[in-house]
């Protein structure tokens, strides 16, 4: 899973073919840790989707830009633009359904 920061965020989002699923998280966040294993499964089962993470403590400017107020927050980017947002822990099937709607 790719870790994004100020140096590579825009490039990763704009250069990706198709869908980019970005997880906004923090080390201290329990639900974020639960979400990590779900996202690992999605990444392994859906190679057509780019899965990435943004640590909100290390990258507050990105979190602010996308108005992240609760974590975990998932944002699905399609063609470089936000297409869907999910806040809080979600089971794998709900995330896949959200991705399938793209």
Describe what is shown at a glance.
The chain has four helices and five strands, in the order βαβαβαββα. It is of the alpha/beta class.
Search tags:
102 residues; alpha/beta; five-stranded mixed beta sheet; 28% strand
Topology record:
Elements: E1 2-4, H1 9-15, E2 19-25, H2 30-45, E3 50-55, H3 60-65, E4 73-78, E5 81-87, H4 92-100
Parallel strand pairs: 1-3, 2-3
Antiparallel strand pairs: 2-4, 4-5
Model description:
The chain has 102 residues and is an alpha/beta fold. Helices cover 37% and strands 28% of the residues. The chain has four helices and five strands. Strands 1-3-2-4-5 form a five-stranded mixed beta sheet, sandwiched between helices. Strand 4 and strand 5 form a beta hairpin. The model has no long low-confidence stretch (mean pLDDT 95).
> Given the C-alpha coordinates, what overall shape results?
globular
Roughly how many Å is the radius of gyration? 12 Å
What is the strand arrangement across the widest sheet? 1-3-2-4-5
Oligomer: single chain
Q: Provide the succession of SSEs.
A: EHEHEHEEH
The low-confidence parts are none
Number of strands: 5
* Helix-strand category: alpha/beta
């Amino acid at each position: 899973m790719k870790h994004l920061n100020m140096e590579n965020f825009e490039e990763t989002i704009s250069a990706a073919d198709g869908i980019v699923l970005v997880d906004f998280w923090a080390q201290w966040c329990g639900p974020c840790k639960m979400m990590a294993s779900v996202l690992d499964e999605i990444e392994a089962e859906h190679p057509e989707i780019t899965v990435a993470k943004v640590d909100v403590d290390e990258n507050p400017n990105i979190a602010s830009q996308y108005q992240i107020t609760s974590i975990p927050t998932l944002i699905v980017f399609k063609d470089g633009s936000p297409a869907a947002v999910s806040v809080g822990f979600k089971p794998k099937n709900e995330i896949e359904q959200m991705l399938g709607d793209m």
